[in-house]
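Hello,

Our lab assistant flagged a job as stuck in the queue for most of the afternoon. It eventually completed. Since we weren't sure the result was trustworthy after the delay, we are filing this so someone can double-check. Below is the sequence as submitted and the structure that was eventually returned. Let us know if re-running is recommended.
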Amino acid sequence: MRNIGEFLGDAWRLAKPYFTRSEERRSAWLLLITVIALQMLLVGMSVVLNFWNNAFFTSLQEKDWQSFIDLLLFWKVTASGGILPGFCGVAAAYILIAVYRIYLTQWLQIRWRRWMTRTFLDDWLADRAYYRISLIAAGDERSGLGTENPDQRIAEDLRAFIGDSIAGMRGILSLGIDLLSNIVSLASFIAILWSLSGPMSVFGYTIQGYMVWVALVYSVAGTVATHYVGRPLALLNFRKQKVEADFRFSLVRLRENTEGVALYGGEEEEERGLLLRFEALAENWWRLMQRYKMLTALTAGYGQVASIFPIVVAAPRYFAGLIPLGALTQTAGAFGQVQGAMSWFVDTYADIASWRATVERLSTFHHAIETARAAAGEGVHAGAGTDAGYALRGATLALPGGETLLQDADLSLRRGESVIVTGRSGSGKSTLFRALAGIWPFGHGEVRRPAGHTLFLPQRPYVPLGTLRHVVTYPQAAGVLPDSAVVAALEAVGLGGLTGQLDAEENWNQRLSGGEQQRLALARALLLRPDWLFLDEATASLDPEAEAQLYQLLRDRLPATTIVSIAHRPTVAQYHERHLVFQRGPTGPGQLVEQPVAVT
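-- returned structure --
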């Protein structure tokens, strides 16, 4: 974990944009200032109650019934000419202020979280940073080259960073306001405690305001001890969030691949893997338990002693008749406020440790996004297009680990021709398609894309969440295309049985088989009618007869579309006019070799 200066710098960089650059900055400042003002009012009312406490208990000691009733229900004019309000009025005002302080705090929290979520999503999705991050194995977090569990960082860590007063989670908002409130309380009550303490002689020396110095020594001792005991919590909380996310992600992976696990009979292995991840979680939890046990013992003991300590220290002056009972209780209350303000670090140490881990995870994630976006110009970049077709110029393709797949290659795909690309598995055919799409970040060169709409269909189609209509028309909005066109496309690709379920919202990724998902992807091609259609083994899950029917369907329905396919079955070649082979040996880069199309 980084030092305190770097940690605070990261927290400031994360929080600053909302209040300085966002479109909500004016309303954000208004809400923040209002919340702080309400918190300061609560501090002011605590000061009033401290003086009220003195007068109330003095009325009890002196058996002054009229003062007792006035202080309870109405108000009382003090000997100095001031007015002390009655308890009922103070309590009503306190409740009203406390309610709206929490309400406005929650309002600010959700607005702030909404803005940060939108900003993080924009940055994560911009320049395909999410894609580059996913290609790099999670390694050294500080390098910023990659990060794991972005879903948790956007969903959970942002919530924890800002805080959630409903769930009791303390973030920058509640911790910051609490710290400011304690500073104001300290300034308000230290003068009261100083005036109430009186002098005290120690070894012949007279100490003025001795209760203030006692509170200072007591708080410093507690702060040092708490930091010593709780120091490992930041790192343990950082690891806790990671192992929790890893365990949850493995459960989601199992849920999404239930059929594959069932067919393999892999239940025991899945359970072994899940329990292994849970053991990492449990081991870290055990370490947290041990550390929290020590910290709780310290803070609980510290708090218990603090409740009686000021009375014990001030009692000699009371028994000596120097102060009445009301002054004793006021002294104890003021001491508690001063000591509590000075002990803010002790009381919030566990929250700060957890929040520090959240800041660390968000800052490394943000750095990974910035690094990925800064590298957006790397790889095969887009150049000036030509209407003749696609062209790769000086393309070198590499794997994330640095292994070269293709070296300084040139390739031209002319408009109107149909091309099939074959080669051994793992040779780099799919990477070639990614380079043509302009998304592959490893390597260098230039891709020149022609005018018109291009559609890439991978072997494993992406099936988004939502209704079947949304799934079929993706990436367009669900209502853009008429239902009649959607139904016709589904029927054409052999999914006519689903046409009555366009508004059904299910987990279609699990409900549809691999072959049905590929049929659905081809239905998208029929609906979008692209000028260029790239198929990366997009029919590999279908039987040869169905594959032949769908290729013929594409040729009949999309006569003006240029089709470029990756395929292994020889029968697919008959639907193409040109054949490229990606040849690559056990080591070294490969090459694209033109071969005549085999006629079957």
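-- support follow-up --
The delay was a queue issue, not a problem with the job. The result is valid. The chain has 20 helices and 14 strands. Residues 80 and 131 are 72 Å apart (CA to CA).
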